[in-house]
Specification:
The complex is a heterodimer of chains A (326) and B (265). By secondary structure, chain A is of the alpha/beta class. Helix content of chain A is 37%, strand content 30%. Chain A has twelve helices and 13 strands. The longest helix of chain A is centred in the middle third of the chain and has 18 residues, at 189-206. Chain A is globular, with a radius of gyration of 25 Å. Chain B is mainly alpha-helical and 265 residues long. The chains are: A alpha/beta (326), B mainly alpha (265).
Amino acid sequence: MSIIKVKNLKKSYEYYKKQPGLLSSLKSLFYREKLYAEALKGINLEINEGELIGFLGPNGAGKTTTLKILSGILHPTEGNVSVLDYEPWKREEGYQKQFALVMGQKNQLWWDLPAMESFMLNKEIYGVSDEDFKRSLDELVEVLDIKDILDVQVRKLSLGQRMKCELVAALLHNPKILFLDEPTIGLDVVAQKSIRDFIKKYNETHKTTIILTSHYMEDIKELCKRVVIIDHGKIIYDGQLEELIKQYAPYKLLTITFNSDGVKKEDVAKYGEVNEFEQYKVSIKVYRNQVKNVASEILHSSFPVDDILIDEVEIQEVIRKIFYKK
Amino acid sequence: MKKYWIIITNEIQRQLTYRVNAITYRLGQIIELIALVIIWTIIFKKVDVINGYTQKEMITYVVLGWFAYFFTSNYNLEGFVARDIQLGRLSNFITKPISYLKHITVLAIGRVSIATLTAIVIQFFLIAIFYDRIIISASWTNITVIMFMLILGFFLKLFLSIIVGFLAFWTVEVDGLNYSFNILVKFLSGGYMPLGLISAGVASVSLYFPFAYTYFVPIQLYLGKISLVEGLRGLGIEVLWLVFLYGIIKIAWRFGLKKYESVGI
């Protein structure tokens, strides 16, 4: 059953045009040309309970705008949105108690106090009972392994520790929907992974519907079965991640290692587009339906083959291709 | 509501982490007071009375006014509100079941609590130091009215600051405005000199505006230059202004939020 329904959602922003130079700066004191930027150009989306969805897209594509509308921060210019049967921008308490929003670049924790103080405040804001609070807190603290930092000033925490605390603050009221806007931004690889693992586990155990935006393909690959790709305010793909790869990457990557004298580039080029070339290691893009044949052909050829691997193309490359084509 | 109480206690804890900051603020404020005492002492060497103020009255005005000013101060809350808007921190509040207006009001109370406590302590020291140079009044009725006047005065300045802070919905540059706003409020409240010094007319007109109730009027009452009845009427005027400013805040909030929602800031 879909709990988020978005129909023909449009959002445009006003901005002003100004020519460079001092004179036009003075002019603009009296007259400014008003322009409209369309951040969202008619988005349709349905999301089911318990889904973990990834929003992908370049900067300014409309990912954050969509999240801001779904969480009730922004008014749409046009279109219908229903989340848990609420219109988000009406900001009804009944809705607000059922979702949480975490933005990687903003924090809700009190900067100068230990995170625990912010947790206690959220407990009261969301009207969480003592027992529920204790249960949720114990669970989250355990899973995220942050017992030791609860009484340390937030300002003294590392970025990764802070993000963990942000997640706790957001989840204490056990929301049905969680909006995560770039939760791993700026984190090191280890911290990224631990945040990722947590999100995945939380989605599985609590059946919380999670919408995640990220620039890191790793996040999407690890977490989301379904991806929504937004570019220039439009959804250009909505479906399974695997399907996306099949659709946009009609070839697979054949990586062959050689021994003895290795190979020359022109010798392998006839099998497909050469992706990377070294004397002893070559990767070639080969169409899906031909990949088996090509692999066996190479194995049976006179090349000094040591090893051969068949891989899917890196999703990063798929995405780059999609945006490049636009 | 427990959530608002926690905001106050959190903010007090936050202030306590900046103890040195609070103390160094006080230092500057005391220097300012000493400068004023010196100026008026020099002026009164040549004359006995200026527009109805004797030297003793003037020093009393400065010393007790110091307290009135800091008791009603909210230490640049307008800048705080403006940053909430500009940095998008407002989103934290409008996505949660909590009222931003109530939040910022209780936050302001927590924010001034430590400063106000130290101001009270310092005020007692100042009274002790200037004991023979100021007028000591023991009219508890007057002092009670004065305390109410200052408490309402705190909220008057608070509401004004919130309104000025809300301008950040429409313009990015609010720092210059905040600066001038604070100086204007200090002038209109009698913070630089008693408004009666300018003219009796200015003094009586000032009774109808909110500013003077944070400085000039309470000290006038203390000095017995206005009657208790006038003081009580002043409380009524303050309440009317609070209602009026609250209305403005509500309107500015409604329109500002529309802008915030449409632009995203």
